[in-house]
Amino acid sequence: MARLSPALKQATPVLAKRGEGVYLYDAEDRRYLDFTAGIGVTSTGHCHPKVVAAAQRQVGTLIHGQYTTVMHEPLLRLTDKLGEVLPEGLDSIFYMNSGSEAVEASVRLARHATGRPGVISFTGGFHGRSMGAAALTTSGAKIRAGLGPLMPGVSVAPFPYAFRYGWTVPQAVEFALRELDYLLVTGAPAADTAAFIVEPVLGEGGYVPTPPEFLAGLRERADRHGILLIADEVQTGVGRTGRFWGHQHAPGVTPDILVTAKGIASGFPISAIAAPEELMAKAWPGSQGGTYGGNAVACAAAIATLDVVREEKLVDNAAEQGVRLLEGLRKVAADHPGIADVRGLGLMVGNEFRTADGGPDTATASAAHAAAAQRGLLLLTCGAFGNVVRMIPPLVVNSAQIDDGVALWADAVASVIG
Ligand code: PMP
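That is the input. Now the predicted structure with 4'-deoxy-4'-aminopyridoxal-5'-phosphate docked in place:
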């Protein structure tokens, strides 16, 4: 008899049988308010009827039109559709299956295009678990420990996590940019650096919005030194932060390469990188590809997802419901000093737990997370110490569901803190 590997760690004990909108149901038909959205994936909610219909239609037409062998229509249509929402100039797209693969494709492109080996990522960043992506990832030791030696050429510069440093955001930004400048003239010479890779909201590392001034500082340095700016929008893309792309919170900043996955197809595995065509043309011929990339059913689901996001104005909804969620959670935190910071952008909100002496309070965060699940509210933790409880509802969430989630959270927190 075979069993699942014990390496698989599951955040909740739920055995999900079906999903509908913001809810998951277990085998006994118990309903859970799903504020995990499959780690920010089910943007249109579970089994949105239009996504289901598009995928079902495609399954009966063509499942796999392997894209280095033949071309298929859903891939071409999705490319047109993405062209409508991508920042101006990012007009060339390449598809893969997962976020990690797309991150690695962005690095491959950056190295080919610049002829330089170096990549700079930022402390707490998460870019994936495959060997190259793990080399860029510092959100927690578990992703790297025991795995090395990892891909060489990676340097890590400080991320402006103001709350952790106990500074104001401008102080943290000034520090992080100063240290980056120092790195570029010491350990990671600018002339050897192909790219900066950054998340518009630090995700697995603790749900910390990246200050717009920091992104602007990266853009300016990238231009000055001929370095490419890669925005890892795997978690922040497709409306999650209340703008279509997370980097759009930084006015005037456009990345050279944008990486997207997760929310783009409501749960079907597909990822992509987008870049200006003249940059993409610098990828060595045949260097990008894969058996399943741009799967026809995933493309059909992605097209339907983009339609639903537009028709149901889900980007605006994420912005509006995000404010409601943040305000509700801040009220809960006001009664519990252990919830030391509540922050976020759109429907990407984190609650950071601290002990009385200011250290990370992993135990209480984990107990509150478990108490929420017992009450039918599914959440996730994040942060290097697992002391941030994060909420990522589907973009279709409404005000009543946000209020339900906040009430369940308040009850869960009260049950563990008292
Ligand atoms: N980048 C970011 C910002 C992510 O949040 C994730 C997944 N959490 C990844 C990359 C990796 O994506 P995947 O798990 O699909 O490989």
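The chain has a mean pLDDT of 97.
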